[in-house]
Amino acid sequence: MSLLFRFAKLHDRANTHVFTFVVTKSVTRDLERDVTSKEFACGFQRWAITFSRTDKVLGVYLVWRNPSEGMRVYVDFTFTLLNREHFSVNEAFSGKQVKFSADAPAQGNRNYIPVSDLYARNFTDTNGEFQLELTMGHVRTVFDTEFRVPQSFFSSLHSSHHRHRHHHGGSAAAAAPGSCSGKGSQQKFESTYFTFGGFDWNVSVLPHGTKELGSGGGAGAESRISVYLNRLTGFDHQCRVRYNVVLGEGERRLDSGIVDDISDSDGKGYGWHPRVRFSDLVYKGVVRVHLEMLLANTLSELCLGTTAGPGASPVGVAGVMPSVGAAAAAAGSAAPAQCYDRDKQAWTLRSDCHSDTVRLHMVYKDIHNVPRNHLR
């Protein structure tokens, strides 16, 4: 088996993550045993490593654990077998922007190293174990779909428009690929769902925009469309999301640029509302959608009391949710505010105003849930 025992994040432009595994002798000696590692996170995706083995050759693979139809992930990665004598004789192989998809979720080298070399070249210790380092960077997640526009849509372009309420993130399931629902100004195109950052998402396009933004009826209503990124799971927290969406292709291509949005507790965000006619994006009865997901972080707010006097100021905390009554208990006092993360683990936050600058102390209260020799 392979055990992740060290992790380092390099603060470089590639957002490089370095994972070091201890691989036990069962990988080379017990050919029937499952040798896939536990899952780990990188680039808002879930990953694992696994091995292929014969009597003579050891192979190693990086496995994308949460693939979705229509989604691809591109990664720069390097596997390095660490030599016990000197780093100059490490055994490594790498790939640049290697594509992972639902059809090909595992990528690697099936002829990584002869098993005999593990022992002869001093990669293993006296117990037959060796260290394998995985470096990952420039992780890119893209989702592609297309909406097939029915002929009935064009006949309704000049019909009367009615008030429309955009997609609710709590819907039970996503529609079929390129599906179109509603009539007239209430028409909406929805993609299938995909997974990113531990949440399920989909994309919806409202050809007539929303009335709240000045569309949805009247003259010139067709000149604005609405595009929403909908969160379908995980409504305990708000979520800060960053993405880039492209509609159409060729000369009909429309690029949003980077969109920063907040997905609320219902999974709804502000969206993107370009001034364009939907019909101008249609080519051969199809509107193509290209989405690149950049970031998805949970976000909550809680109030901390200050030791300098009464009153409370809101503090945004990524990934935690305030406990009931925590804000009231903390207001006007230095008592810590208790909060919970997505895994229902407890944390406390306390402010300290005794020096020239405000200091925040954050304590992981459920540290006892982390096994010995493990990190969280």
Automatic annotation (TrEMBL):
Residues 160-169 have a biased composition (Basic residues). CDD domains: MATH. InterPro entries: MATH/TRAF_dom, TRAF-like. Residues 170-183 have a biased composition (Low complexity). Residues 160-183 are annotated as: Disordered. This is MATH domain-containing protein. It comes from Gryllus longicercus.
